[in-house]
Write a structure and sequence with these properties.
The complex is a heterodimer of chains A (548) and B (322). Chain A has 20 helices and 16 strands. With 548 residues, chain A is α/β, with parallel strands linked by helices. With 322 residues, chain B is an all-alpha fold. Chain B folds into two domains: 85 residues; 211 residues, MetI-like (MetI-like fold), CATH 1.10.3720.10. Chain B has 15 helices and no strands. In chain B, helix 5 packs antiparallel against helix 12 and helix 10 packs across helix 11. Chain B starts with a helix and ends in a 14-residue tail after the last helix.
């Protein structure tokens, strides 16, 4: 607020500094050659997939670390000591509170002060930094990353990687890689109430509706049987795929663009009949008193409290929140006096389909890394730490033989340790491998083989995954290959269009706006430049196609 | 603002300061019997509005305090209002047993004390100099301060500056950049301006130089404004988290507000990652949040009554005959 006498200096120095940072960033971006010659300090000569990486001399890498309040960072965590022992690498961490992570990351990158390794970056989040040049075009260097390239080849992930390529054909984030698609979000139902009323577990959205009707009939209350969390965006996102569209503010709506394989062009999905059908379905739930209109505005705490105290019967969930509901309901309602479960994602007009990418959040590297003389060792370390099976096992479960062992092909904790958040305990399990030792934490654990991904799942969740595996998977839509300048333009146009779409969607669902107004809604979007937004996307796509 | 209580009290505080002299004046003028009907209605209206203000500011504080002593179950059912239900102090033991909480707590105390001391020193000498009408270039120096109320360098330039000066990850990044609050500066300046010049002239006659006058005459007579400013600065520093979030990288240096913020907002944010991301969501129970809030606002709350006795006007009544 008030640096006084030096305020003008601040302004001048600040601008100069920002300009310098920008210039430095640009030059390093342009110098990205895909070569590590002369930067081999500490690197292993014969590093291949499956080799244990160990730097030939002690190295220190800086890293941005997201601190999760459920298992707050401790300097004493064993995971860092073990990493040092195995790889000869010290991680110098910048600790950032959970909710402010993306802000601080943007600040550090834009001011040219970013650490080398930037953890927990979702594909798509890197786009805003591509133009500035401060982020490494890491696809130039994947040849030094044998574990990464092997997984991409073995698991057939090239099409997935294409979804994150920018206009220059490169990608800037190293995503977490999944061997198989593992969906997580769906609806949780009070299954004891379903049983009591003799209702089968709903398999389609129509059955969800009729189940809600029967529940409301049997348990009339001032509050609708379905009161949702995540501002209703999660359920819209889950349902959208089965209706053949994308929806959910900040969840699934993304840029609103889907790709038509037949016409070979992008189109804006929230103006399609599919989207209208989806909105009509949820508007019906709300107007008939089956879904709480508060679902779209209330806090998660409020929605959870409703469900956990037995006032409502349906809520969105993932595997972990399901456990959290149970913990609360054991206390509130009493163990054995209720039952809840994830239902298979209900089928929509498209049938049993599943959309999603096998790419997860991953890491970015600062372009300044390419100038370090230990650059090759950094690439090898990142490859080992985030993409080798051995390391993925280690970051999830700890050192084999100490905290866990394999029994009948299953990961089992050794007595004395537990992993409470996933429901794993042992008779004398006093040490939580997550809270006390730093394993199974979000900064290191992304993706992996199906065996590793499913190793922390409960039997119930495994059964659910098995059902979901039978669903038809929709191939991921390609990213629009904008150039940096085009992207800026597109973002300027996109923001008001998406905002207007979300507002109108909410008004339609809440009944504040009649669905007869649909044509007016489409016209409003056109007035906001929808046509040129879609045209620009297709132009960028055609241009990139010509180049390739 | 992280902690609603102390800052929320400020409007009430200010309002009561303004209101009471008015009421007193009315009484003095005509005595209570002679108050007109309009004045009486106004008085009643005043009391009602102020009571509402008190209720609105006090209820959240009491509610959080009640939650901190309640068991999770009753909070979930929404049954905790002003009185704890399912009384327990286990949550206090849990929070108090977390060493990170106390490390951050200590940091906050240190930052608040150091930052307030620096702010008070700088604001006082700046305001005193500005209050002298004979100061050359006075308008310029006033504008140097004022302009920062309207224009700021922007987040990234500020970060580049602070980090360029090598202040990041030190206490100085917290206590220096916002050392002078222009609002506080102007309040002090006008307080000093209203001080009778005759007192200073008398001091000069008795042989005191400028600094002696400031130290021995002006400051002792300015306890009211100094106490107020200390309170303003201390509350602002105690509540501040943004500076720490920007400039600190090591969790061992975080103030308790970051700890609290991480606990409260971190727990309620959802990943916006689509259907297949491995969830890294968190849930912190409501009474843990409440306990952390109570412990965090307690010290600053306790300080208020002690400082309040300086909120009196008229310390200098009768010091000069004009």
């Amino acid at each position: 607020m008030a640096i006084t006498l030096s305020r003008r200096d601040v302004l001048v120095m600040g601008l100069a500094g920002a300009a310098a940072g920008l210039l430095a960033g640009c030059s390093s971006g342009a110098a990205s050659t895909g070569d590590v010659a002369g930067k081999t300090v500490g690197a292993m000569k014969d590093y291949t997939a499956g080799t244990q990486f160990k730097a030939t001399k002690p190295l220190t890498f800086t890293m941005l670390f997201q601190d999760n309040p459920a298992y707050p960072y401790k300097k004493s965590w064993e995971i860092f000591k073990d990493i040092k022992k195995m790889t000869n690498v010290d991680l110098d961490l910048t600790i950032v509170p959970y909710d402010d992570y993306s802000d601080k990351r943007a600040l550090l990158i834009n001011s040219g002060k970013a650490p080398t390794i930037l953890a927990k970056t979702y594909p798509g989040e890197e786009q805003q930094f591509v133009g500035g040049g401060a982020i490494l075009a890491v696809s130039d260097y994947t040849k030094y990353m044998p574990n990464f390239t092997k997984k991409v080849k073995d698991w057939n992930l090239d099409a997935d990687l294409d979804t994150i390529r920018q206009a220059d054909g490169k990608f800037y984030v190293l995503p977490g890689l999944h061997e198989t698609l593992s969906p997580d979000y769906t609806l949780a139902f009070r299954t004891d109430v379903l049983d009591e009323l003799g209702i089968a577990v709903p398999q389609t959205w129509d059955e969800v509706r009729s189940a809600l009707e029967k529940i409301r009939e049997a348990h009339p209350s001032s509050i609708a049987p379905f009161s949702d969390r995540w501002l209703g965006a999660c359920v819209l996102n889950v349902a959208a795929a089965t209706f053949g569209t994308m929806a959910g503010a900040n969840w699934g709506i993304s840029n609103g663009l889907m790709f038509d394989q037949d016409k070979d062009e992008f189109y804006y999905t929230p103006t399609t009949d599919q989207y209208k059908q989806l909105v009509t379905y949820f508007a019906g739930l709300v107007s008939d008193g089956l879904m709480d209109p508060e679902s779209f505005t209330q806090t998660d705490d409020q929605a959870q409290a409703n469900f956990q105290t037995g006032k409502t019967y349906v809520i969105s969930t993932n595997a972990q929140t399901l456990q959290l509901y149970r913990t609360a309901m054991d206390q509130n309602i009493g163990k054995g006096k209720y039952a809840i479960a994830k239902i298979p994602v209900p089928a929509g007009p498209l049938g049993k389909v599943l959309a999603g990418s096998r790419l997860e959040n991953g890491i970015m590297l600062s372009s300044s890394a390419a100038k370090q003389d230990d650059f090759e060792a950094l690439l090898q370390y990142v490859d080992w730490q985030w993409y080798s099976d051995k390391a993925q096992e280690f970051v999830k479960w700890g050192p084999e033989g100490k905290t866990w062992e394999k029994k009948d092909g299953k990961y089992q904790l050794i007595d004395g340790y537990n992993l409470k958040d996933y429901g794993f305990t042992t008779p004398h399990g006093k040490i939580d491998i997550r809270e006390d030792l730093g394993f199974s934490c979000g900064n290191f654990t992304y993706g992996g083989t199906t065996a590793i991904v499913q190793s922390t799942m409960t039997d119930e969740e495994l059964a659910w995954q098995k059902v979901m595996a039978s669903y038809k998977q929709i191939p991921p839509a390609p990213a629009v290959p904008y150039t940096a300048a085009e992207r800026q333009q597109a973002t300027l146009k996109q923001t008001p269009i998406i905002d207007a779409t979300n507002t109108a969607t909410l008004n339609f669902i809440l009944g504040k706006r009649s669905l007869d107004d649909w044509d007016d809604y489409v016209k409003e979007l056109n007035d906001k430049g929808l046509k040129s937004y879609v045209d620009d996307a297709n132009k960028a796509y055609q241009a990139a196609k010509k180049k390739a | 603002m992280v902690i609603p209580a102390p800052s929320a009290l400020e409007p009430g505080q200010v309002a009561s300061l303004e209101a009471s002299p008015d009421l007193a004046k009315t009484r003095k003028k005509g005595g209570s019997l002679a108050r007109t009907r309009g004045e009486r209605i106004f008085g009643v209206f005043n009391v009602i509005v102020l009571l509402l203000a008190v209720a609105v500011t006090l209820y959240p504080v009491i509610n959080v305090a009640a939650q901190s002593f309640s068991s999770e179950k009753y909070i979930d059912f929404g049954q905790v209002f002003v009185w704890p239900r399912g009384f327990n102090i286990d949550t206090y033991k849990v929070v108090a047993g977390d060493p990170a909480f106390w490390i951050d707590y200590k940091n906050t105390v240190v930052y608040t004390v150091v930052a307030t001391a620096i702010s008070m020193f700088l604001s006082t000498i700046y305001a005193y100099a500005l209050s002298r009408k004979e100061l050359k270039g006075r308008t310029f120096f006033v504008w140097v301060a004022l302009i920062t109320m309207f224009y700021s360098g922007g987040l990234i330039p500020q970060y580049v500056l602070v980090s360029g000066l090598g202040l990041t990850d030190t206490i100085w990044a917290i206590v220096l950049p916002n050392a002078i609050s222009v609002f506080n500066l102007l309040v002090m300046k006008s307080f000093f301006e209203n001080m009778p010049r005759e007192l200073e002239e008398a001091a000069a006659l008795d042989g005191l130089d400028t600094y002696g006058t400031l130290w021995r005459v002006v400051l002792p007579l300015s306890k009211a404004v100094i106490a107020t400013m200390i309170l303003f600065y201390a509350v602002a520093n105690w509540n501040s988290w943004f500076q720490a979030f920007l400039y600190l990288d090591k969790s061992s240096m975080f103030p308790v507000t970051i700890y609290l913020r991480n606990l409260i907002t971190g727990a309620s944010s959802a990943q916006t990652s689509g259907a297949n991301a491995a969830s890294d969501l968190t849930a912190i129970s409501a009474n843990i949040k409440a306990v952390a809030m109570v412990l965090t606002m307690l010290p600053i709350l306790v300080v208020y009554p002690f400082v309040q006795r300086y909120f009196v006007s008229g310390v200098m009544l009768g010091s000069v005959k004009q």
